[in-house]
Predict the structure.
Amino acid sequence: MKAILVDDEQMALDFLEHLLKEFDGIEIVDKLTNPFFVKTSISKNNPEVVFLDINMPQVNGLELAEQILELDSSIHIVFVTAYDEFAIKAFEINALDYLLKPIQKDRLRKTIQRLEGDILFHNEKSMLQQDRLRLNVCGSFSITKANREVDLISWRTSKVRELFHYLLHNRGKLVRKSLLIELLWGELDPEKAYAQLYTAIYHVRKTLKQYPDNFQLENMTEGYILSTQAIDIDIELWQKNWQVMHLLKRIILTIMLKQWNITQRLILMTMIIGGQKMKRLDSKEYGIEQRCR
């Protein structure tokens, strides 16, 4: 289990390192007194757990934990805190582990056992989720799993649904916050519009949280990037199937035309041209949500 230790006090870091080295299976890949280097270290070392002090003068540990989970939602956060038992109860409600200073070895053992169990569960869950999911965006929004179970997804508001659809349509690309504001909340003043955007993003994350291996929503300085993995989207599958069917039709028509007389060929060409004129009425590129209609 790879671990990063973060505390602005060097003595506290050294003491935690000393305790952790008494347990098998713990590899300390980095120790940091400057919390601003945490995200760089995570990208370099790929830890399973970060032991994070809450009371640091440079940054609030709770806020830093949110940033870490945005970077990699699979990382386990263990808070190291001098807060009293009443404050610690709040962390337990949110399923966040903690160590109370001064750290006791027996309490640390329980934390490591809990971490090992959580990491094992996550690894087994990831293996089960290697099968592809089908995302159904036309009609009722739902996700079909490999075992054919269907999760019906409800969005907090229509704006949240539209936001997700736009991010999905542009997945893998940076979507600027200013563009989202213009598209979805253009009638509001900037302060209210950005507040609505951040709230909507929160609800998108909350909805996708149960599929951490399939969706990643990154918060960049200027916008957001939605990444997907092992996901099939119904309308894109239909488009691919249509392209295959269209190719088959062309092959079949080529064979048939060689056998038909001139009159039969003229009738067929008239039908094809008429169909193409109808298609031109709807040839514009739309987003995923519009293409479902």
